[in-house]
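Quality-control log, excerpt.
Job 1 of 2 completed; input and output follow.
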Amino acid sequence: MAVIRALLLEDAPSAENAIKRLSSAEQIINDTIGASSAFSLDAMRNFFVQNSGTKIEDPSKFLATSMIGELYLLYSGVYFRRGNYIKGAIWIRKSWKCYQTSMRVLGLHSDLIRRDKDIRSCLLFGTGLFYFFVALVPAKFLWIIEAIGFEADRDLGISRLYECYNDNGYKAPVALLLLIWINRFWSHDLVETERLLHKSQLEFPRNSFYYYLGGYYYRKMGQLDKAMDVFLKVEKFSFQLEQLQIAAKYEMGWTYLLMEDWKNCIFQLENFLKFHKAPSYRAFCGYQLGLAYTFNDENSKAMEIFRKVPEWVRKHFTFDEFAARKSLQYFKAGGISPAEKELILAGIQEEGQNHEKALLTLEIFNLNFNLKLEKEVEMRVMYYYRMGVVMRNLRRQEEACSYFKKVLEFEFQLGNSGEIYLVPYAHVDLGEIFLKDAEIHFDSENSKFQVEIQLAKSHITSAKIHRNFDFDKPLFRRIEYSLDRIKIFEKGKKPQKPLFLETEELGTRNSESVVEMTKDLVEEVQVEFNLKDEEVEDWGGLDPLTKFAQDENL
């Protein structure tokens, strides 16, 4: 719990308390191992090597040594969250040495992995977590880990997390949580995200962390009313973790922003800033609150909050830096211009998956302002990029490509402008479009496929060379994901999952997939609790299943 608070709050006292608790846990584990001093990898290795000829009846020592690696990963997480990348990378290195030793010992005592689910669960979760997240470590710090011969492997990491969840050991719930996050934010596999979320709601109907990720998913899908209901459940079920309740206010405020419900958005975001004293999220929340004030015709309040935002920026946090740059721009100008207001509104509508409404807003912008903005390069580029995104989501791919290419034409004119971030973003959007076309035309002998792969690679690598622009971290995740897929194609293979299932495509699959999932889950519950057909035939969906689980205190 102390580590969770530290990750949520990002303040020094919470981090210090988390480190203190981790140190206490480390000492307890050392006592279990029987070490007289700080944990020694050599001591652990020698203990098991010396006993390699006998069957170990009590595996508690081995489980304890395996948990040390996980403990060190938590240390690294706290340090990374505080921006101390050097210490974070060093603790990751220590963690891997623990897991490496544990895996070697298993070669001597393979019976342990077969007969002890706790050990199996611990190692599958720990190594899966390690393999995946080390791939996300900033490149300039990766050398610390590579120095011990470790190479990140996202696919192996994901595979082990799935194995951990399916094995149903004590780490399965956390593995499920991570898999939901990975599928939602990394691979953008919304169908798999939905499947895992439904499983989590059935298995853990009162766990607020699953609901929190569920709220993100529904908001991404444009199901804003459902997202709001889920975030309300986060607030209800996280009574033991006040900071998560406060965070839910921010997510509800963000959701109201996408609903264009400015008054409720203002109410939630004001409450968040009132109760949330830690540095995390304050800058971007302040920027969003300023937008809501502006659209609600409260310009004086908007100017006051825009003035404060730069004070809340955390170093190296790209959302904070964007919020500060734009807030300062609006404060100096005395407000947001009518033209940029329309572009911002179109962006809000697009984020809420209201593509047709966003297109109408952009068409009105073009009619009212475009001819007046010939010399305002930044505004024109913002318009072209917004149009590209809308056209892409409406599956008008040729028009989308046309607008993204117009963005690229203005790269040198943008120069050091803050809106230069739209150039690498346009490159990635183009690369993903060509990559998706390549998946459709997959055939190593197909000349069209070869051209599309080369175009995809060209745009993705062009985006990768850009540095120091807004929202760089989310884009780098998309870049790495696309490059991974290109490597698979270059080996003459086709990736198993399609690239980025669009909302519309998912919508056409939802009705069928949910029906099938519901049948499967009903059967699971029916078998588990020996229920008769008539006891489940009227349920009709997952909500009654969740109610059943709650009634049975599962």
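Job 2 of 2 completed; input and output follow.
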Amino acid sequence: NGPDSNFLHMSRARHWTLDLFGCPKYCRKIQKARRVCDHRLTCASCEVGARARGRKTHTRLRSHTAGTMAPNLSMLLFESASGYGLFDVVETDEIGLELEVVQKTVLDLSKFGKVVKLKAFLPFTSAMEALENINNISEGMVSPALKHFLQMNVPQVKPGKKAKFSVGVHDAKIGSAILEELAIPCQANQLTAELLRGVRLHFDKFVKALRENDLQKAQLGLGHSYSRAKVKFNVNRVDNMIIQAIALLDQLDKDINTFSMRVREWYSWHFPELVKIVNDNYLFARLVVLIRNKSTLNDESVEKLEEVLMDSGKARAVVDASKASMGTDISEIDLINIEAFAKRVVSLSDYRKKLHTYLQHKMAAVAPNLSALIGEAVGARLISHAGSLTNLAKYPASTVQILGAEKALFRALKTRGNTPKYGLIFHSSFIGKAGAKNKGRISRYLANKCSIASRIDCFSDALTTKFGEAMRAQVEERLSFYETGEAPAKNIDTMHKVMTELQAGEKKKGGKKRKAGEEEEEAAAAGAEPTTPSGEKKKKKAKKAKVDGEADAMDTAPDTPSSEKKKKKNKNKEAAAADPETPSSEKKKKKKKDA
């Protein structure tokens, strides 16, 4: 309610906030600085009507958020490859940080050394300690060394009171962890980033104990060890093997198909009738290696051909066709080249089978439920397209359904056409079994089950195929439901059934382990007895009996005088007890006589 309506009052911060056009003429520098600063500019000394009274006072600018003042930045925490460094911030100016003049001063140590000064330095004693600390920092955790370092060098905040200082850190995660562990307020903003940039640039000059190339060597060694640890402890490292295996499998399929067509075309100049008799590429390549020149075929060659073709009729047809073949004759050098190329095709086909077996074992170890539900090849393609099993587990069922059909999806969205119903899961046998009307419905249901199976494989500790087999039976029941109308079992009932089976299996395994442990203990006890012969046992028993007898004798010998004394005492007592009775009886007799 002043004469200047451009001033706005903030009751919480207890100072005036200047409007862009409400600042006096002597605050034009503030207007220029305001264009750089992201926060509101506040003036702590300007008052309502200052411009009207012509008061020329210097204005101080402060940044605030929601009307509250942040703690002053007084220290910086810098993590290097050689150790932790704590710096005192002497002078800071948040306004104009992005100006070229201010950023150039960071490069000059003589100017930057007046702003920041080293307070404490904690060096790492070994490379393992440096790796452990850098792993904790990357995960947003406070290591014991860092906790002790901050407790020794940062003033403690009393419970129930607000701190008047704050520590600048580069990452907000480690700042929040320090706040939780030690109740030390931290900042991670543009100001701390600029100051830490200068500290990183001049760190070897701040710490005088470091030699010229020590920091570079420490950075290089820590970088290598950190990268090796990340690759070694990568959560998705097993998925990488599956991704590479399925990619190589697809490439081999393409190459073998191309090479087989080349062998067919090349050898057909010599024996064109063989292509019509043998359609399989692998068998054709093996026959090329076996036959070589068609003129060498006769009735004796039928047995060898039958071993390759596993069919006596086809073997006889090959021999008959060679006798009336229309192919041209080929020189020996040409046959040698054709044979060498056919051997390569056969070896590639054999390696493809081994690679498929390897992929099956890997999928059974990494994603058993997904492979049991949809097959090893389709499951591996889903993992490869998602990037990892973890990423696939995070996808919703709607994304899994169209995974691999992104181009068709975006084309349909662009042209406003029908979106695709399935992607990679189209290669599953369930989609082919379903009718044309039910392909979309079964693909949606199958994607839902694939999503559940991938999450079980990713986040469960015990690997089992029970869930995958149960969900595969559910998909088959849903197919029959679409055809016959028979209601399938509920998902919750199926999952409860599998869980009870797994629990019963664990109990049986536990009982077997206990029995095996008891049998081992009994066997160990039985094996320990015959180790000492019977004669030695008897001798040992005799020695023990002698020792016990001597000990008993020693114990009973000193007891004899004491027992005799006790007997004498008992006799004296009995005599003393019997003596007083006699005079009393004599007195009674005398009295009777007198009477």
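Post-run check on job 2. Residues 95 and 522 are 81 Å apart (CA to CA).
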